[in-house]
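Title: Prediction job returns without error message
Component: structure pipeline
Severity: low
Priority: P3
Assignee: unassigned

Description:
Job completed but the reporter wants confirmation the result is attached to the right record. Sequence as submitted:
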Amino acid sequence: MIKVLIASFDMEIGGVERSLISMLEHFDDKNNEIDLMLYRHSGDLIPLIPEKANLLKELKAYRTFRMSISQVIRSGHILIGIARLLAKVKASFSHVAENGYKQMQYMWKYALPFLPGIEKEYEIAISYLWPHYFVAEKVSADKKMAWIHTDFSTVETDTRLDVRMWNQFDHIIAVSNECKQAFIERYPMLRAKVIVMENIVSPIFIKKQADDMIENPMVDDKRFKVITVARLSHAKGIDRAVEAMKILKQRGINNIVWYVVGYGGDEKRIRELIAKFQLNDCFILLGKKLNPYPFMKEADLYVQPSRYEGKAVTVREAQILAKPVLITNYSTAKSQLNDGFDGIICEQSIEEIADGIVKLYKDQPLRERLSLNCRESNYDNDDQLNKLYQLM
């Protein structure tokens, strides 16, 4: 048996976490002994972790990365708290508006000396979520692999610090060709390490979950229903969705309602925009949902208004449910769908998002054609795991 460690942060609801669950469900446990290391034993997806994966004991020091600095110090991890403070100060000197990625890098760099490692030795260690310092520095393994879910053309990192970390991995796995290319452009010296392996999705599981009988306001809503499933964050562009809805109302289109399943740090700002534009009756935040698929199933159109994406798992899930899909032209968009065949790509402006929705709202034959092509496409891709087994 090959001893395999897979490490990630927690099991809060999100696309990366769902893709991890899918990978674990399909992982070969006849030839592999799978340990799962979560920095926090929290999140609504914890019950979905397959029994084949042995969830290791939580190490309290790693929980601190989701706490405020004051909470870290009050919890007794004073040195980690000081490390966090140093990281925040150093990242503040960055010349970019969003320095969250750099702050995360420095946070790990300064905290590493005060973090425990794992005594058990592995043949394979997989770090599933950036930053990958835990597997790089605190795990002993014959071979190490790290996942890329991020479009690195859109984020600012400390390149020198990153390269030092990436060099400790034998293989780097990108979830799309576009993710791979963006990464290589940022780190050309790492080209030989990078391969592509798509997020694993399970059409059977998604369709079964979509049939769950749950309380769903969309069922009785007779308007044209748009849905987005995403974090309420800058990257996902939900604020732009609100702006696009405002444009639709200004054009006199009153038979459209936009539902959003998700939660996140931008919720307050998004609610303020909804109130400002008087859209409370037609832009509806449904909040966090363990099972988003019944909501997707009731929609007439799925829209992904993201500013950037690695590869949005929810877009593929909507296609599996045979929904017409509209996505913005983020740099990895062409890896998500075949434009005009199983979805439509619009440009990145708010006006273009609104135009794309209007086009699909008015053109029922187009929606039906996109839906039919999705229904007839094979989105089952568990064969992608063969790439991982070959590396192993």
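Comment from assignee: result matches the submitted record. The chain has a mean pLDDT of 92.
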